[in-house]
């Protein structure tokens, strides 16, 4: 029998993350958006929640084990707080989670301990490419085996925090399959290019990255001879992104609902108008439906079932849902929805980004 009740640890985690989102993220989201930077103290406080170490085995310095469902629960709260700040805080996961899932024993011993220390880790991943109809399974970036090394060539975009990262996990095509390679920032031929200004999430600084004959030893191929299972990584990413989308949509719905209750026109709150009431009801239905899809996909992944199809459908549905809900919030606020005094214009811009961020979340 299915149970929709969180266990005590999950409930405590969700309450903690929600409190952080409400007390730390919400007060700074507009400042972070305007300045395109996040206060270092806020980043450190977010890191001290221990979300990533909670997904790393105790053997390597962590204090938990990976659970897609638990991650989805707290990611919704982070998305409710602010998507831009969330993506910044989740950037180290892009490097650590793939290593936790597919790394060799040596790779885990070498790198995972870096993500269980007190300071926010300087690591990221480069997967998205500046091409039309980007497909993670059909990368233009190549990896060629030359002796005991791999030589990487290609270009990446939307690489978060690349300028300050000490380590990058670079995805490239090797013999027709997508694999991942650990690349130190100082490697010759690795060029961190211009920053990329996106439509939303301005709080997250991301960059173009170019690889010109970047050479790394064969030991830096993630997973060694076995390599990685791209579908599993994309499944993890899609579930996480969908959970963030639910949180963003929930924030927009709650704000629009409160506004509609307080905004009086022609002698009554606009929430009592049938057109507004129907729109709000549909927004709530879509959010609840997407949340259940997220939970089902996460449950399947945690129970070693094939969650590929469920994750793809959930991500596609979430992309559509978050755009419709955030746009609906702007509509309900009318002219107020288009001005920066209210956050719904930012949430709409953030909502539009989910369709383009495939692979940009690991949690």
Outline the structure in words.
The chain has three domains: 8-116, Acyl-CoA dehydrogenase/oxidase, N-terminal domain (Butyryl-Coa Dehydrogenase, subunit A, domain 1), CATH 1.10.540; 123-220, Butyryl-CoA Dehydrogenase, subunit A, domain 2; 230-356, Up-down Bundle (Butyryl-CoA Dehydrogenase, subunit A, domain 3), CATH 1.20.140.10. It is globular and about 80 Å long. The two termini are 26 Å apart. It has helices at 8-35, 40-47, 68-81, 83-90, 93-102, 105-111, 230-262, 274-302, 308-333, 344-353, and strands at residues 123-126, 142-146, 149-160, 167-174, 177-184, 190-196, 206-217, 264-265, 268-269. It contains ten helices and nine strands. By secondary structure, it is an alpha+beta fold. The mean pLDDT is 95. α3 (68-81) packs antiparallel against α8 (274-302). The strands form three sheets. A four-stranded antiparallel β-sheet has the order 2-3-7-6, with no helix packed on it.
Radius of gyration, CA atoms, in whole angstroms: 21 Å
Instruction: Tally the helices.
Output: 10
Largest sheet: 4 strands, antiparallel
What is the CATH class name of the largest domain? Mainly Alpha
User: Which structural class best describes the helix and strand composition?
Assistant: alpha+beta
Classified in CATH, the superfamily of the largest domain is Butyryl-CoA Dehydrogenase, subunit A, domain 3
The residue fraction in helices comes out at: 40-55%
Count of strand segments = 9
Indicate the proportion of strand residues: 15-25%
Uncertain ranges: none
Give the SSE order as H and E letters. HHHHHHEEEEEEEHEEHHH
């Amino acid at each position: 029998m299915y149970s929709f009740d969180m266990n005590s640890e999950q409930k405590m985690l969700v309450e903690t993350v929600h409190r952080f989102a409400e007390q730390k993220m919400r007060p700074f989201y507009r400042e972070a958006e305007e300045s395109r930077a996040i206060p270092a103290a806020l980043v450190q406080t977010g890191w001290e929640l221990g979300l990533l170490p909670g997904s790393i085995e105790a053997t390597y310095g962590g204090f938990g084990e990976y659970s897609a469902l638990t991650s989805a629960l707290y990611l919704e709260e982070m998305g409710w707080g602010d998507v831009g700040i969330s993506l910044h805080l989740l950037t180290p996961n892009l490097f650590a989670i793939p290593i936790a899932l597919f790394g060799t024993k040596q790779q885990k011993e070498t790198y995972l301990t870096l993500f269980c220390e007190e300071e926010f880790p300087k690591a990221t991943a480069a997967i998205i490419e500046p091409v039309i109809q980007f497909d993670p399974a059909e990368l233009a970036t190549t990896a060629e085996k030359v002796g005991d090394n791999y030589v990487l060539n290609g270009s990446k975009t939307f690489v978060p925090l690349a300028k300050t990262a000490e380590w990058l996990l670079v995805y490239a095509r090797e013999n027709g399959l997508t694999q991942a390679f650990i690349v130190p920032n100082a490697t010759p031929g690795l060029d961190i290019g211009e920053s990329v200004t996106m439509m939303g999430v301005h709080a997250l600084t991301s960059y173009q990255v170019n690889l010109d004959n970047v050479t790394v030893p064969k030991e830096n191929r993630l997973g060694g001879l076995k390599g990685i299972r791209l579908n599993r990584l994309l499944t993890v990413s899609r579930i996480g992104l969908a959970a963030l989308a639910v949180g963003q949509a929930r924030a927009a719905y709650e704000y629009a609902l409160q506004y509609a209750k307080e905004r009086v026109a022609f002698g009554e709150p606009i929430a009592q108008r049938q057109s507004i009431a129907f729109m709000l009801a549909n927004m709530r239905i879509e959010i609840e439906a997407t949340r259940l899809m997220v939970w089902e996909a996460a449950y399947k992944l945690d129970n070693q079932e094939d969650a590929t199809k469920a994750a793809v459908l959930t991500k596609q549905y979430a992309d559509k849902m978050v755009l419709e809900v955030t746009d609906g919030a702007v509509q309900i606020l009318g002219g107020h929805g288009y001005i920066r005094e209210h956050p719904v214009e930012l949430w709409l811009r953030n909502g539009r980004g989910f369709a383009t961020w495939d692979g940009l979340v690991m949690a």
